[in-house]
Amino acid sequence: MIALGCDHGGYPLMQEVIAYLDQAGLAYENFGTYSTESCDYPIFAKRVAKAIQEGKCDKGILICGTGIGISITANKQKGIRAALCHDCFSAKATREHNDANVLAMGARVIGPGLAVEIVKTFLQTPFSGDERHVRRIGMIEEDE
Length: 144
Ligand code: RB5
Known about the structure:
Helix 4 (88-98) links the parallel strand 4 (82-84) and strand 5. The chain is built from 6 helices and 5 strands. It has a 5-stranded parallel β-sheet with strand order 2-1-3-5-4, with helices on both faces. 48% of the residues lie in helices and 15% in strands. The chain is an alpha/beta fold. Residues 7, 9, 41, 64-66, 68-69 line the site of D-ribose.
């Protein structure tokens, strides 16, 4: 199950992502926002993070205008590894190396064609499971 979240800036691109998920038959839960009315991106980043933390969803997709605010917020939530990706190379690498559980994108940065390719790449690429990557991911949340 994929958790979806966006703000007003990300709303138009999220509709394109939803159209792809529907066409591909992929299950998702949409945590809003549900219109282009101005709103606050942290609300939606935190809803998506909570769904992953509770195990209701295993991955998330977050979209705001730049992807920056929504990814910063997501990355402050325990257990969330959000990757801001605007190219397929990064989307593939972050799944293989970081086991990223959230993809963030900026609707004002890329177009829908590329965004959907990034979503496909992110969802289809498995974590490598390599020991060095497992070790590094474990270190992310370690206290100093
Ligand atoms: C909203 O105008 C915009 O600030 C937001 O979508 C995002 O880009 C923040 O990082």
